[in-house]
Amino acid sequence: MPHDLDRIRVGSAPDSWGVWFPDDPRQVPWERFLDEVAEAGYAWIELGPYGYLPTDPARLTEEVARRGLKVSAGTVFTGLHRGPAVWDDTWAHVSQVAALTQAMGARHLVVIPSFWRDDRTAEILEPSELTAEQWGHLARGMERLGRQVKETYGLDIVVHPHADTHIDTEAHVARFLDATDSGSVGLCLDTGHYAYCGGDSVRLIETYGERIGYLHLKQVDPAVLAEVVARGLPFGPAVAGGVFQEPPHGVPELGPVLEAAQKLGVDLFAIVEQDMYPCEPDKPLPIAERTRRFLRSCGA
């Protein structure tokens, strides 16, 4: 019998409908995403890439409300390891997304580090390992971002370890958390990305539980992942090759992850994010419905 995971609030995101970009002819229209995410049984959504959903707060409020939906977070990409020189451009972008996120009544901003290699072409954009100086820039920059986002927009930032970024493996995640202030910087644990990079989600929750402010739920296919690692494939082709698997058929097991999160004793969003870009337009809804049923069977 599954435990009642009463501290876990389940949602989904445009990502689970194959949406990576504000505008792309291979993506489903935003109206269809909103219709189908509600039909699949989710109450919470993320904004996805800024500009995919309407950016006028009044219009977006009307569109989500009439479908019985609410917004849990917005998302930004940042390259703060590059130092103070990038702050002004970073803040201009973050402010745009944070303002809409705040207007939608959400409380979180998911912050993803920039990619060190192009996720489509595999072009190496910069070294995969940061220097000590760059780690310092990253830690201080994220703390500054966390403070300023909180002061200006009332949002908590949650940094998202992500494949092909500098915050990916267990060692890198631990180094980042140890270098940053828990009062300014939380963590968005994405179970799929963490497994993709060799991490153990349950162990991370048990070790750094006070830093976990948000969850993304996804699983990887171990066989596909092994090929990705062996061939050194970048993230985009790995996704197109099916590295992320519909639960409960991949790893990590989500039941134990959710139970570990429940034991933290705090309310947490757990947003399903099954990367599928690009995908056929009729593919996401049945997967989303099955995933919602599976999560209910876990008690969420």
What can you see in these coordinates?
The chain has 300 residues and is of the alpha/beta class. The protein has a single domain (8-297), classed as Alpha-Beta Barrel (TIM Barrel). It has helices at 30-39, 57-65, 87-103, 132-153, 170-179, 191-196, 201-208, 222-231, 235-240, 254-262, 284-297, and strands spanning 8-12, 44-46, 70-78, 108-113, 156-159, 186-190, 212-217, 219-220, 244-245, 268-272. An eight-stranded parallel barrel has the order 1-2-3-4-5-6-7-10, surrounded by five helices. The chain has a two-stranded antiparallel sheet with strand order 8-9. Helix 3 (87-103) packs parallel to helix 4 (132-153) and helix 7 packs parallel to helix 10. 46% of the residues are buried. The mean pLDDT is 97.
Largest sheet: 8 strands, parallel, barrel
Shape field: globular
CATH superfamily: Divalent-metal-dependent TIM barrel enzymes
CATH class: Alpha Beta
Low-confidence stretches are: none
Measure the end-to-end span.
12 Å
Helix share, percent: 40-55%
Order of helices and strands: EHEHEHEHEHEHHEEHHEHEH
What is the CA-based Rg, rounded? 18 Å
CATH architecture: Alpha-Beta Barrel
Number of helices: 11
Query: Tally of extended strands?
Result: 10
Query: Per DSSP, what share of the residues sits in E-state strands of 2 or more residues?
Result: 15-25%
Given helix and strand content, the structural type is alpha/beta
